[in-house]
Amino acid sequence: MKIIDKYILKRYLGTFSVMLLMFIPIGIVIDVSEKVNKMIEKKIALSEILIYYVDFTIYFANLLFPIFLFLSVILFTSKLANNTEIIAILSSGISFNRFLRPFFIGATLVSLFALMMGFFLVPSASKGFNDFRYKNLKGNSQTRETSDIFRQIDTDEYIYVSNYNYMSKTGFNFTFEKFKDNKLVYKINSNRIKYNEKSKKYTLHNYTKRTIGVTNDILESSDKKTLVFNFEPDDLTPVVYVAETMSIGDLYSFIDKERKKGNANINTYLVVFYKKFSLPISAFILTLIAVAVSSMKRRGGMGVNLAIGICIAFTFIFFDKVFGTLAEKSAFHPFIAVWIPNFVFGILAIYLLRNAKR
User: What phi-psi label fits residue 200: left (phi over 0), alpha (psi between -120 and 50 degrees) or beta?
Assistant: First the structure.
């Protein structure tokens, strides 16, 4: 590796690290200012708060790292251009493609690190982050899933709860329906259902069961009844929350299981799965765009480059959110939806680089 490669790579990784070290504390300060009253009110232990903010840092650093990387590349490349260092490098006989090599090396290192984090570290951080919020930071009216939860747990079995408390593993207004040949066989209702982690069984309060007969139905009721069902508590949690807390292997197995069940929320899980791969690739694309935008010396200086970069960054976020939501809420294929932003901005990167070379 030549001196010029080491110089640019050092600036690449150094500016990116400084960008993270600048913005993550700002995010933590804002979060603390919003939640400090509830933390004091609930007398949360300092050690628990510190663990929460470690998870908070990992969670949001992974979520926003392509944008931080993009802005940091624009920042230090603009500085190189304003100091005429890029002109000196290219005038020495180095081609523009050769000039890009240390940027590719830096993007590769950052992407591999982000990929490993997304596979193994981020799921654990996401679980800790969300668990803390559900347990300590949300009011009593928000500790349960606000929307109705309906799941198909097998080809002919369906469950429904009106509300679900993730922390206490308790659901309310529970219904279980068993079908055969598109006909209802029996239906179970309960005012409250609670999962016991030790016995792996569910306790139903105010239990009723109606078995459909040819001429007469059979009714069964009890104040309290313990049963075994073919579903896990995770089937009752918010779908994105479940997917975000799983490692890549567990998520793949979970998606395969849910696909066999015919789960209607399968697209939501697939969006999370594909984003684990598409997010690191976006580091390459955004790096190329940042270099192409900021490698030219402009009359407005670094401010113009940053303004252009911020517009491109927010456009990228807009595309990512729109197509991700589209895949979750419609029949649009999740793989295509997740990769469209990278494809569109990849074409933009090629176009901008061709102009920059001129």
Answer: left
Contact predicate 84/24, CB 8 Å: no
The predicted pLDDT at position 175 comes to 93
pTM listed for this prediction? 0.71
Over residues 232-248, the mean pLDDT reads 73
Question: What would the two tokens of residue 310 be?
Answer: 């911020």
Going by the DSSP 8-state scheme, the letter that residue 144 receives in this structure is: B
- Cα angle vertex 317, ends 146, 101, to 5°? 140
Q: Summarize the confidence of residues 291-317 as an average pLDDT.
A: 78
Least confident of 5-19, 33-47, 168-182, 250-264: 250-264
Are 170 and 164 in contact, with CB atoms under 8 Å apart?
yes
In sequence order, which residues have a C-beta less than 8 Å from that of residue 12 and are 6 or more positions away?
72, 73, 76, 102, 103, 106
Q: Strand pairing partners for 188?
A: 176, 209
The predicted structure's pLDDT at residue 3:
83
254-263: long-range contacts, CB 8 A cutoff, minimum separation 24: 261/152, 261/153, 261/154, 261/155, 262/152, 262/155, 263/151, 263/152
Classified as helix, coil or strand, 274 is helix
189, 212 Cβ separation under 8 angstroms? no
What local confidence, expressed as pLDDT, does residue 239 receive?
56
CA angle, 33 then 39 then 41, to 5°: 115
Domain range list for the chain: 3-138+266-357, 146-237
Is the separation of the CB atoms in 262 and 155 below 8 Å?
Answer: yes
The answer for residues whose C-beta is within 8 angstroms of residue 220's C-beta and 6 or more apart is 207, 208, 209, 210, 211
